[in-house]
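Hey forum,

I'm writing up a methods section and want to include a predicted complex as supplementary material. The small molecule is calcium ion. I've pasted the protein sequence and the SMILES. Can someone with a working setup run it? I'll credit the forum in the acknowledgements.
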Amino acid sequence: MAKLWSYSLCLLATLCMVQAKPYHEAKHRALLRTGYIYFPGGGYYRLAYKRPIIWAEARRNCQQEGASLAVVNSQQEAENLRTLYLDYGPNNADLQFFASNTTQVPVANATVHIGIHDIFIEGEYLTVRSEPLIATGFVRWKPGFPIGDEQNNCGAFDTAKYILDGPCDAKLPYICEIPEAA
Ligand SMILES: [Ca+2]
Ligand SMILES: [Ca+2]
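Reply by user p_vandermeer:
Happy to help. Structure tokens for the complex are below, copy them as they are.
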């Protein structure tokens, strides 16, 4: 009986310890392990560039890991996405590795899929969370954009901190986002 009690207490203590560990801390570590980069005050972002894919596939990939295609909500977030690309994109690790025997010049500005589109109604831009673009807080079109026709319905981010529209079947890198509060 004493053995059973001590076993029960031990189990209870273990459960309490697990409970005491803040949930967000475990989640934080798990996200970092799966390739997410944390921007304090912003959230978690994962840049995928090694295999460029079409917008719908990028959207699904983000959804499948509990994220969504990134939506730019502020100038600061645009800055963070640019930093993400410059620090963790192909300009860095991959090109540096081959730097000694390549003539390829790192490209400072790149275009990546983000979570805005006008697939349903031409010109009516929505986020992947079905909010109107105007409600995002960041509507800074790249000069010359939006193209604004039926052939260009998927949103992208130019790392020079602009949004633009393009063909949904363009194969691009993409960024998944998990807001900090989520
Ligand atoms: Ca966002
Ligand atoms: Ca369009």
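Some notes you might quote in the supplement: Residues 118, 122, 148-150, 152-153, 165 surround calcium ion (ligand 2) (CB under 6 Å). The helical segments are 2-20, 23-33, 55-64, 75-88, 93-98.
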